[in-house]
Amino acid sequence: MLNDSRHILHVDMDAFFVSVEEVLDPSLKGKAVVVGGDPDGRGVVATASYAARKFGIHSSMPMAQARRLCPQAVFLRGSHRKYAEFSEKIFDLLEKYSPAVEPMSLDEAYMDLTGCQKLQGPVLPTAERIRNEIRSKVGINASIGIASNKLLAKIGSDYAKPNGMFWVAPGMEEEFLAPLLVGRIPGIGKKSSEEFRRLGIKTVGELAMLPKELLEEVYGKRGTRLYWKARGACDSPVRGEEEDHCSVSRETTLEEDSTDPRFLESVLSYLVEKAAGQLRESELYARSVTLKLRYSDFKMVTRTHTLREATSEDYPIFQTACGLFKKLFTRRTRVRLIGVSLSSLTRDRCVQVDLFDKMTRKQRDRLYEGIDKIRHKYGFRSILRATSRRGSPPRGRGDCQHF
Fold it and tell me: DSSP readout, 247-298?
């Protein structure tokens, strides 16, 4: 499971949203700054400066509570547009060092420098150059974890914060992990940590002593993953954007953040119609549907479902996306961005006959062919599903597309 021939970096910006605000307004440096929703409303903290964290403020905390903890703090409403511009500059910089850059959010990414030594030089000096260049050209501090896999690199960058670097040398994985609290392992949250604590397990080393069979009996497939994580084992590759060229995606940032499920499902319906129309135009069929939500606190979540058969039809794709939405959506936090991605594309489809289907495959194909012809002649909005009408953006305000 371990592969010490790889050189993986996890690059994580320090208090990214606050750091962007400090670049734009240097007078904020050194102050307690909180970025998030409306401090007088029901918003939550997206991030807080290290000065604000000394008062106990942390991300996902209600803004009202943050104000009570530190009333003298500077409270700012976040701007996704500004943060996205800075994020783009950072990722452009990272991609100069390696084609294998996997974004995880606006402010963090994995990089694979394996095989780049002849061009870039040794890994540790290269990581230091990356960190320094982000600071000098973008004005943001970054923490970098360096290891033989993504799991250890992620833990390493967290260990290095703020504004540091941490290298887990090959062969030292288990020794490094053993004394750490189990909560340091990605995927083990507060609730799981408490469960382990009740079992007398506080450190990763103690978790690693549990038999694989016991973990699988208690936690199922998750138990298998915990067994290998406790040993620092991870074979997950760094997936650069160029590896995701076989997908069709549509997303839109809402004019106003929303908690209205009917409206959000309507927006989703519109995006599905756009993406499915692109599939049919390219004579492709999708097997996987991914839903993407970004909340007003800038937290992003995604879920993917694999269809029984590849399709380019709006209805089964929307039904799948809608099911994912109902699992992910929470009324506690407003939605800022919603998107859908269709992947596992193919030019062939495996047709399964449904005895209870009122329309034949040929009838549905003719229906969508007619819809596409009308749209080609009169514009996309000339014919929409009823569920898409409310979510259709006003003319002149398009949604973001990727292919």
Answer: -EEEEEEEEEEE--HHHHHHHHHHHHHHHHHHHHHTT-BEEEEEEEEEETT-
Q: What is the DSSP letter of 97?
A: T
Catalytic option among 21, 22, 102, 108: 108
Give the helix, strand, coil percentages of the chain, each rounded to 5.
45, 20, 35
Give strand pairing partners of 62. 44
* Residue 312 backbone phi and psi in degrees, to 5: -125, 15
Averages of pLDDT over runs of 10 residues in the chain (403 residues) are 73 96 96 85 85 93 92 90 90 90 89 87 95 96 96 95 94 94 88 88 94 89 90 86 66 85 92 90 89 85 88 91 89 85 77 45 73 72 67 44 39
Please tell me the distance from the alpha carbon of residue 43 to that of residue 30, in angstroms, as a whole number: 24
Q: Using CA atoms, how far apart are residues 48 and 34, in angstroms rounded to an integer? A: 4
Structure confidence at residue 218 (pLDDT): 85
Distance between CA 34 and CA 334 in Å, rounded? 18
Query: How far is it, in rounded angstroms, from Cα 305 to Cα 276?
Result: 16
Query: Is 273 in the active site?
Result: no
**In sequence order, which residues have a C-beta less than 8 Å from that of residue 238 and are 6 or more positions away?**
8, 100, 101, 102, 110, 111, 112, 150
Backbone angles phi, psi at 344, to 5 degrees: 50, 55
Residue 377: what pLDDT?
66
* Tokens (6 digits) for 23: 């670049």
Helix axes 221-229, 212-219, angle to 10 degrees: 140
pTM, whole model, 2 decimals?
0.66
Q: Is the peptide bond before 162 cis (omega within 30 degrees of 0)?
A: yes
At residue 402, the pLDDT reads: 39
